[in-house]
């Protein structure tokens, strides 16, 4: 049996599974739960694959002890080559609603309610996913530098994504993370110039992550901001790493970090409340986090954690998919430009649907 057979069997028998591939890795890893139980993390000391929502504490777990792990090497196939870019037909109603939301966000910032908020929208696109495995391989072919995933759980259905953003990597007492924000189109240009608005929104993220991690760390190293390309867009990124104080668990670190101002805002509480009251839809697992928990999937050891923020993702339903896209709003935001930014980000998932 290969990965595709496992995937079909688990889906038919409503058993959770995940198929993932780490950035720049040729390995496809399948974690197939062997029973139909619904597991959740309680304190993040469990081992397995975790899938956490944006709001709330409870994360879905596929426990290592009740799963079969299947590995395959990804062979880039010419048959599933990159398709040409789709021309997006603009939905005026959606545009108006999003620009109105952004306008309200800017007003709240000018009113002093918070400094930054990340606002998002959900877009429905007609699509029938016949072969999930083929779709996943197309995702990996197109985005080899992203964390690619295909997650299924009977309680939430199928989610897929190719995220450029690491939430946290913990290995041998050392933490690695990144502050990623600010967006412009990636046209392959060599010289990249960033505006004040993008620098501002990214600096909020760096400051928040550094301040949140400090109590847990014995050392912290912060890189200079640099440009990180992620498919058709690029971002400003600062790498942050350091040594953990002995005995610090993952749970308090995750509560302090998630959601970062790359997906929520600054301050966290006020911006989160604004999102809840104003976005008008449930983000569910968009802007949550996912990845391996207390499990080094490369070495096969029950140590090490590698989590990513669930961005550039979609929920796959029977006859359509739901794309989730958001962008950071500051006092200098222009509603129309922010809408265009969500369109640009949406091409990451649209491209594999063509
Ligand atoms: C919230 C998203 O992106 C975040 C990550 C990088 C750049 C972002 C931005 O420029 O707004 C966002 O903070 C998304 O892709 O839905």
TrEMBL record:
Keywords: Isomerase
Superkingdom per UniProt: Bacteria
Annotated Chorismate-utilising enzyme C-terminal domain residues: 95-345
Isomerase found in the keyword field: yes
SUPFAM superfamilies in the record: ADC synthase
Molecular function terms, GO-annotated: isochorismate synthase activity
EC number: 5.4.4.2
Enzyme class: isomerase
Reactions the enzyme catalyzes: chorismate = isochorismate
Family to which this protein belongs: Belongs to the isochorismate synthase family.
Name under which the protein is recorded: isochorismate synthase
Protein source organism: Myroides guanonis
